[in-house]
Write a structure and sequence with these properties.
alpha/beta, Arc Repressor Mutant, subunit A, D-Maltodextrin-Binding Protein, domain 2, elongated
């Protein structure tokens, strides 16, 4: 299917009518109508409900609209990278960060990158981990920056992980009033109302089970800020990375280091797809991060780089 059909389809959807799309695209309405018919024939489904003053998408039409936007975004990104050459001075840096991820070093690195490569555009997508993984696999971003306990996906490559300390964060005076120690065991935590991140529940469940303990969290949240707010309200003890609590501004909470556990609690995890080629733009940014944070990064070999 001609890519221009998808581009024109997006315009028709966003303009709401063939008449408005025809004016914007400067393409005759019959030609646009024929393109819609060709798409409907190719996919075997109706894309619009006709008869109303404004075109309305069918369920199939909504799916195609979303996928068409992905395809055109990827095509645009590929063209920008290729036409701007392989020097990395131009193009677009496309990265994703999780909604619960706060890291001043990353923000500082982006500023340094923009100064070193002033002609490069920077697009940062913020979303939850599942959506970021979809964007990474679809090529909408080339690297994501997240807090991740474990990566089981064979098609993903963890480029860098900086471990953090697991702490029990709580409102001072609400818990452990008679316990002056700086650490707390899983056994001590078992009877307390716990606040956890949803994606960390499986790892914590395993850690508790290894010690013949049962994990029964009181509050489970998709955002770390929410998990910590339960602790700030005095309702729970939040089990979170130490660096996360500090970077998110929860320095008012008391903390105890969680002992007797080998849980990996990374403060920063950089993930990319396993493949031979990444754009020079993202390679330049990852190299800058490696230079700043002192980790090793080896650029994938692309045949163009050998010339």
């Amino acid at each position: 299917m001609n890519l221009s059909y998808y581009q024109n389809y997006i315009t028709i959807v966003e303009e709401g009518s063939l008449t408005a799309a025809s004016r914007k695209l400067r393409i005759a309405q019959p030609a646009l109508s024929n393109q819609i018919k060709a798409l409907e024939t190719a996919y075997g489904a109706r894309l619009f409900y006709r008869g109303a003053r404004r075109l309305e998408l069918t369920d199939a039409g909504r799916i195609l609209y979303q996928k068409a936007k992905w395809m055109t975004e990827i095509e645009t990104a590929a063209r920008n990278e290729i036409t701007s050459g392989f020097g990395g001075a131009k193009g677009t840096l496309r990265i994703g960060i999780s909604s619960s991820f706060e890291n001043e070093r990353l923000l500082d690195a982006l500023v340094d990158f923009s100064e070193r490569y002033p002609d490069t555009e920077i697009s940062v997508f913020e979303a939850e981990l599942p959506e970021l993984l979809k964007k990474l696999q679809n090529g909408q971003v080339e690297a994501i920056f997240v807090r991740l306990i474990k990566n089981d996906a064979e098609n993903l490559d963890v480029l860098y992980t900086h471990p953090d300390t697991l702490v029990a964060a709580y409102r001072d005076g609400a818990f452990f009033a008679e316990d002056p120690s700086d650490a707390v065991s899983l056994g001590q935590l078992q009877s307390l109302p716990l606040s956890l991140m949803e994606r960390s529940v499986p790892a914590f469940t395993s850690a508790f089970k290894e010690q013949n303990l049962k994990l029964s969290p009181k509050y489970v949240s998709t955002r770390m800020q929410v998990a910590l707010n339960w602790a700030r309200a005095g309702k729970a003890v939040a089990l979170v990375p130490k660096g996360a609590a500090e970077s998110l501004g929860f320095t008012d909470l008391a903390q105890k280091t969680v002992s007797e556990t080998e849980l990996l609690v990374p403060a920063l995890t950089i993930i990319a797809q396993k493949r031979k080629y990444r754009s020079r733009v993202v390679n330049n940014f990852l190299a800058l991060l490696a230079e700043r944070d002192g980790f090793a990064y080896r650029e994938p070999i692309f045949e163009e780089n050998r010339r």
